[in-house]
Fold:
Amino acid sequence: MTARVITITSGKGGVGKTTGVANLGVSLALEGKRVVVLDADIGLRNLDVVMGLENRIVYDIVDVVEGNCRLQQALIRDKRVPQLYLLPAAQTRDKTAVSPDQMVDLCQELRHDRDIVLIDSPAGIEQGFRNAIAGADETVIITTPDVAAVRDADRIIGLIEAAEKGTPKLIVNRIKPKMVRRGDMLSTEDVIEILAIELLGVIPEDEKIIVSTNKGVPVTLDGQSRSGLAFRNIAKRILGEDVPFMIIDQEPSLLDRAMRLVGRR
Amino acid sequence: MPEKGWPVGFLDRLFKREPPSKEIAKERLQLVLVHDRQPLSPKLLQTIKDDIIVVISKHVDIDRENTKIKLTRGRGRQKLIADIPIRSPRRRR
Structure:
């Protein structure tokens, strides 16, 4: 059996790619899958710290590509879950240290004896992004419900389609239900309508994400948070399970609108 | 802007309230994306049209006035469609 290679990307920075990859990696491993998460953000690596594995890095992706070590030596096992490995990015090099062809070869090598390879793409549309999608079978766009992130997501969707990587699926991150209800934040439906791609999941805004990143413990590992549950659901959908979407951002009701008009909300 | 349900749109107008900010966001996004999704500027499209007319005219007599070139919209593959009417050939001897 050979793994599916899935790249998580966004165009804009700071919308939750790394947090998403860390938590989906954990969630997929909790589903019993053999998972590798790969940090493709060479020069600005962060997946290691978000996952709390930064102290265990010996070799990185560039070492593997340049033949300084074997792939197995560079993979860091996450001991908190069965069968989750991190392949860290290099910190002292830049995006040109790896070519798209080398990424394709690396992904081929990672496929063996695994179920899912998740790639954390850098922000932007330059070579780092090109590298991140080069070896992907599938792509996932993560966005937040604001004009800048949605605009960049639209551009990235066009680039992914032009690169003949199919149509990506969508994760809407950091939804604030109260603001959506008030009519002051784009709803998931609005974002889907604009981007016209299939929804994979919605993550509510959750302060626990910040706490979990502070500690280096992905929120999915940390009990019963809303965001953690949302990530678990997305992992199940990736594996083909039909999980209903969490209702977190209903459109404003007539009452909400009326209250707003009389200045009560 | 997308139509709101009648009671709210009506109340909005009645109270002269500005629309919820997400409606503004949506409208601005949709406008900006029309431009972003356009891979060829109108100027470039005109240049392409002029070049096509020159090339085709070498071989066939075409109706330059009614020659049109347009980009088809939509996701996935985009296409350039050229509509070049050929003038009825002069009666040959």
